[in-house]
TrEMBL record:
Annotated Pfam families: MarR (PF01047)
Membrane-spanning ranges: none
Originating organism: Alkalicoccus daliensis
Full protein name: DNA-binding transcriptional regulator, MarR family
InterPro entries: HTH_MarR-typ, WH-like_DNA-bd_sf, WH_DNA-bd_sf
SUPFAM superfamilies xrefs: Winged helix' DNA-binding domain
Location of the HTH marR-type domain: 7-143
Length: 147
């Protein structure tokens, strides 16, 4: 491997770009009293329907105590409800409310607008190549983690 300067390393540039994007998202979400984890829960509920707290916890890869706090925060904001499972009345499922759907939709609209701003002037082919390259790198990292 040659002696690249840090600014010329792909990993450094990816990390810096992700950091800047996360900061922008966090500022936008903070204005709504939300975090990325809370929005991710809303997304999972909208996308996959009602789920148990354990299912959500596994998808987010967080500890039970962390999940409890996230669920409580969304309940207080009336963005989700806990309901009895249709199949097992002892089991509680988490469902997104209409207010939760509206918030989730607005957040993703802002994120899409930011992505459009970031990719302005980049051709569709270049964007597709970048997406495929990033996914390939993610797969390699996942495989490496399993070793």
């Amino acid at each position: 491997m040659n002696n690249k300067r840090m600014e010329e390393a792909v990993g450094y540039q990816l990390s810096l770009t992700a950091h800047l994007i996360h900061n922008q998202h966090n500022r936008s979400l903070a204005n709504r009293g939300l975090s990325r984890s809370l929005v991710r829960i809303l997304y999972l509920l909208r996308e996959d329907g009602p789920q148990s707290q354990t299912e959500l916890q596994n998808k987010l890869r967080v500890q039970g105590s962390t999940m409890n706090g996230l669920i409580e925060s969304l309940l207080k904001k009336n963005l989700i409800i806990k309901a009895e499972s249709e199949n097992d009345r002892r089991r509680k499922v988490i469902e997104i409310t209409e207010a939760g759907r509206e918030v989730e939709s607005a957040v993703w609209k802002e994120m899409r607008e930011m992505e459009e701003e970031l990719t302005a002037g980049i051709s569709e082919d270049q964007q597709q190549w970048l997406l495929e390259t990033l996914k390939s790198m993610q797969q390699k990292l996942e495989q490496r983690k399993e070793q």
